[in-house]
Amino acid sequence: MKIVIIGAGSQIFGRRSVIDVLLEKQFANHPVELVLVDINEQKLEMMYTFSQMVAEALHSPVRVSATADRKKALAGATHVFIAVSYHRYELWEQDFRVPYAYGFKQAYAENGGPGALFHALRNIHIIMGICADIETYCPEALVFNFSNPESRVLLAISTLTNINAVGLCHGQHDALQAVCRMLNRPLHTVTMRGGGINHFFWIQSIVDAESGEDLYPLVKQKASEETTTDFALTKDLLRIYGMLTYPDSTHAGEFMSCGYSYMQGKWKHGLESRSIATMHKSQLDTLSPYVSGRLPLDQILVASREIAIPIIVAMQNDTPAEFASGNFVNSGLFIPNLNPDGVVEVPILVDGKGIHPQSIPALPEGVASMCRTQMSIQKLTVQAYKERSKNLLLQTLLLEPTVDDIPKAEALIDDMLELQKDYLPVFHA
């Protein structure tokens, strides 16, 4: 087995993935190679040093290597993790500030809102190059995409390539944590099930894992008593639609016209440059205390909430296992009243034959209509990238709930394509 992590230098994901692989005891029974890949050689070297220390501390038999040569790394890979982005925080700031300067008040600009269109285009462009190499050097590999905007990126992979891919996100685990915090219960005692789209899923059932008792009435009561601002939008949506969604206003608000009003001024506004990179420690800052020995390594040697490694183990051992969510094209109508040509997030069953999306009941029309709009945005984004079409970019923006002015939307496209021309060369060919 050969696992390749592309974007291994990413600030949180790379570290968590390395630890998850090296903690997995099942890998002691099989020869496993872990290859770290990143274009930032300084971050890559730090992650490799960290990985070697973790492997030694855990007495892991996994062979770890690192390279900036993606093609070399992918040769013969069985599993590929993709978590990539160029200048993430610098460009994310632009994704938020420039639309705001035009009067488009989006919530977060990562997965939804006008800024997310340009985030999607940049990451799709990077990932199409990665996918071309996967098709050449390891066409049978199972690909796990973690790059946002998850739905749009996965739709591009699924429709523009021949790769076998699934999109993974820990969002529903975040929802489970929120529920268990409100109920003051351990995570393993509660089972939740639902679906929708990534970062805008809807939980249809919450039950006691052992008795099957319906816990939703108690969750609604406890949620109504919540006073934190981060939970405010989720609380209102639960009251209105009767179902829990992402437990933070940041992500849930990305897909609604009202999302910005719940953000509590998290961002300062305008076109002026004010890098938000300082809000986040770099990968080197995160790892250096452990690599230098200033902090004990065992402090962070715990499994993450990501499910890629448990999925691989379940497939390898042919041990059926259920997981809360995976992202797939809805071609099998896993959610019957959502678009068949868009990406949905649904529960999954994993066994030796692969990953099997599970069907859930139709969503209430109020939330289904919002999801369908976002799925049309997914499709138009991918078409716009494929056809290099500014007209389709405009059509995409005009579906966004926060965009209410055609001339401003056209000007925004021109500004963003010029501002980010180094990262969107396909629109300047």
Describe this structure in words.
By secondary structure, the chain is of the alpha/beta class. The protein has a domain at 87-114 and 169-428: L-2-Hydroxyisocaproate Dehydrogenase, Chain A, domain 2. Helices cover 43% and strands 15% of the residues. The protein is built from 15 helices and eleven strands. The protein has helices at 13-23, 41-58, 70-74, 88-101, 114-137, 150-160, 171-183, 216-224, 232-241, 249-252, 283-291, 308-317, 365-387, 390-399, 406-419, and strands at 2-6, 33-37, 63-67, 79-82, 142-145, 164-167, 190-197, 200-208, 321-329, 343-351, 354-357. It starts with a strand and ends in a 10-residue tail after the last helix. The model is unreliable at 270-275 (pLDDT under 50).
Estimate percent helicity: 40-55%
| Beta fraction | 15-25%
CATH class of the domain at 87-114 and 169-428: Alpha Beta
CATH architecture verdict of the domain at 87-114 and 169-428: Alpha-Beta Complex
The major sheet is characterized as: 6 strands, parallel
CATH homologous superfamily caption of the domain at 87-114 and 169-428: Lactate dehydrogenase/glycoside hydrolase, family 4, C-terminal
Q: How does the helix and strand content classify structurally?
A: alpha/beta
With strands numbered from the N-terminus, the spatial order across the biggest sheet is 3-2-1-4-5-6
Mean pLDDT: 94
How many helices does DSSP assign? 15
Low-pLDDT residue intervals, each spanning 5 or more residues:
270-275
Could you tell me the CATH topology label of the domain at 87-114 and 169-428.
L-2-Hydroxyisocaproate Dehydrogenase, Chain A, domain 2
Overall body shape: globular
Q: Radius of gyration over alpha carbons?
A: 21 Å
Count of beta strands? 11
Distance from first to last alpha carbon = 40 Å
H/E element sequence: EHEHEHEHHEHEHEEHHHHHEEEHHH
